[in-house]
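Researcher: Here's the sequence for the chain we discussed earlier.
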Amino acid sequence: MSRNNEEGIFDALANSNRRRILQFLRDKDFVRAGDIARDLEIGHSTLSAHLKVLRHADLVVSRRQGTEIHYRANLTVIEEAIVALSRLRRDDAPQDPPTRGKES
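Model: Thanks. This is the structure I predict for it:
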């Protein structure tokens, strides 16, 4: 993964709606944009903008069927992002994430 693409991936993942879209697409194969908008209750123009960002980050793959565009998550790039994040972790870091807001 190139440094430029890595930044685009993390910028894309910073938005909760884009993460929702990826979660929705995670176990599906090529879903119509209209179905994504309906199921996630996202306006069509808003969805289009989010899908554009996800496409530029290679987090989704699109294909045209007639007049419709279908999308699926690019799990390979998502896995590469997870690996990139794991490199930031210290070797001696605890295995369980710390709980927020609770002190002992």
